[in-house]
Hints:
The complex is a heterodimer. Chain A is built from 16 helices and no strands. Chain A is mostly helical. In chain A, helix 5 runs antiparallel to helix 15. The two termini of chain A are about 15 Å apart. Chain B is an alpha+beta fold. Chain B is built from 14 helices and six strands. In chain B, helix 3 runs antiparallel to helix 4, helix 9 crosses helix 12 and helix 10 crosses helix 13. The N and C termini of chain B lie far apart (about 125 Å). At the A-B interface, helix 1, helix 6, helix 8 and helix 16 of A face helix 1, strand 2, helix 3, helix 4 and helix 5 of B.
Amino acid sequence: MSSDFLHEPSVVEGRPSFADIDRQISAPLDQKPDYKYFIALGISSTMLLIGVFFIGITFYYGIGLWGNNNPVGWAFGIVNFVFWVGIGHAGTLISAILFLFRQKWRTGIARFAEGMTIFAVMTAGIFPLIHVGRPWLAGYLFPYPNQHEIWVNFTSPLLWDVFAVSTYFTVSFIFWYVGLIPDFATLRDRTTSKIKKIIYSIFSLGWRFSNRHWKNYEMVYLILAGFATPLVLSVHTIVSFDFAVSIMPGWHTTIFPPYFVAGAVFSGFAMVQNVLIFVRKIFNFEHIITVDTLEKMNKVILATGTMVGYAYAMEFFMAWYSGNQAESFVFLNRALGPYAWAYWIMVSCNVVFPQLFWFKKLRRSLPFMFVIGVLVNVGMWFERFVIIVTSLANDFLPSSWAYFKPTLTDFGILLGSFGLFFTLLLIFIRTMPVISIAEVKAAIHGSQPTHHDHERGEYNNE
Amino acid sequence: MNNTIYGVTGIFETPDGIIEAAKIVEKSGYKRFDVHTAYPIHGMPKAMNLGPSPLGYFALVFGLTGAFAGFLLMTWIMTYNYPLIISGKPFFPYPAFIPVTFEITVLLASVGTVLGMLFVLFKLPNNSHPLHDTDYMKKVSSDKFGVCLEAKDEKFSEAAAKELLISAGASEVGTIYYDEETLNFKPNIFDVKFNVFLLVTAIVISGATYVLLNKLMYTEPFNWMHHQARIDAQVPSKFFGENNFSMRTPPKGTAARGFAPYQYKGQPELAEANLTNPLPPTRENLEVGKTKYDIYCSPCHGYHALGYARLNGQFPNPPSLHSEKVRNWGDGRIFHIITEGQNSMPSYSTQLSKEEKWKVILYVRALERAMNAKEEDINNDK
């Protein structure tokens, strides 16, 4: 690396022409998918169907099919919800926060990560719905003047959650769609198929690449990034309020919001990195989603993983320092009690293994980073499990303690959530440009004027 | 054949070329021109001499609207419309309103700004713009850069515009024509297709709304609790033979527990002659009588038995109980009226037990005496 911070290396390797970029990015949309794609789609949709089946029998027979018992009223349903909302945090972080920080390496992965955000939040949204037992009455969660003349409780974190998650979904979706408009217009002008042309025309809204529009478009992108940045931090903060505002030992702490946000970014980046490793290989995007980009993602994983490790240590310190008996017991119980197995899976996957990313060689090795990414997501799922289940299972009243045992239905629905996520992702890969054509074009060498007649000549891209 | 000119276009090969061309066109005095590029070019708004984007104000207005609307709605609901004490919080728990206020602000600002940009500022969707489906658009959407001088500009003439673009370094120039069909299209409100579309949309939306609000919201797909293996009261049932009901008719001579037959049905005079109040006017009896009188009798007769009460006007006014006639009735006569009713007064047998009736009568007597006190009553008290 040169010490000249103004001279940024290009995010796109080689010097592809604009036409090459069009061709390469729209290749997955133009070609007929091969059998591997259908095998992948078959596996993910089978998982999805398994999930649909188990959700179906949950509606038919009731929540009693789950492992939830009397003290552990929140188990897999809420664990999965928090897990998937967390996965959804990488996308908006990449597209909004890294945009504000002018991190150009986000260009190649932003669209894909935004798509993953939307699918992850959709997957997450299922769990509170099915957890209420009667999802067809979910309309009452919104404050509309109804015939009962009662309103929702605006002081409840669970209601804040409804607003936070639905706002997050809407704003992420808009962000994603605004980015897609110019790309749909490019596809509209490229395609030779009549049906595709109609579809792309509708979705491009008749975008004309006018620079009078681009000026406002860039402004709206900046505004959206500005709003999405506090939004992405607020969503997991509010999710953590679901726990922190209650008085359960192990939940009632002020460290939860930053700790949850760091954990969400951590798991989200691991998931995006995992999927990108496959996508760049299968669709020959290696020069757009470079190893440099993946290495930078691994650095974020390392940083957020270390923050999460700090939070684990600080929780123990606070439990001891507070002198509160219930609090101290809950944390000792997590590490040494009946759920110690889950606790140590969590610590090893989230704190220990990501530390190997300090080595540059490992950080740039595809198979290694894939394995770490998987471990991080396993660890983050167990983090939510440990937080939710251990606190509830051994709370203030020892006479009501019980051990939580998940049932087949719990696992079936968890599997189904992965099926839904990957099915949506696979459909996305084949129907929309997974890399932003306009943004990549704007970021490659020689795409911007050199301003050689300008006093700012030394800032140019070359 | 098309012959109305929309504008003249020039294609440029490099970003440097297009920014120079934009400067030249701007300096030559054209107002209605546009630069088309596949991605935003740095420095182009300045080269085209465009003002700042107004979208910041959109965001400000929508954001503030969201913040105030959200906060005021919550305040109205929680503090004024339906105040409830929840976990010991005050009726105006403003710190608890912060998360939702923030979310509504972000939601309204983002949605409002984007929709405002797309539909108000850009007037999209517009797939019938003359630039669409031209070679020019196909080139600028991929790897070329283009300038378009519109015919609506005061300075426009086809030849001069082409010359200007070539002198600015255009690699090719062309002319864009309006699509005559689009230009001459006049919307017709009675168009069949349009009306069918409207009708279908109306049916689909109203049907979906009906199903959603009236059916889906009240669906209980697995309502086993409602359908149990038991017989509901007052429902026809064949369990006890044809044409029977789920409730059995009691056998002849059955009496309910605590039931005592009333022997002077329809014979007030006989009741007056034979019944006497068995209870003494003690303090306890009078207090029970007052309670029962206030509950069952006072709505019509009034608290002082004067016949003026809160139900006056809705039913025929009952007569005063202080009349000569009532005062001279025996207790048995009043007992008979409470038991059987009289005129529009119904029977109070189901509300008052036999004992309670006598106690109410004691209280009525006390009221009568109080309203028509005599000299000797005062002396008696001494």
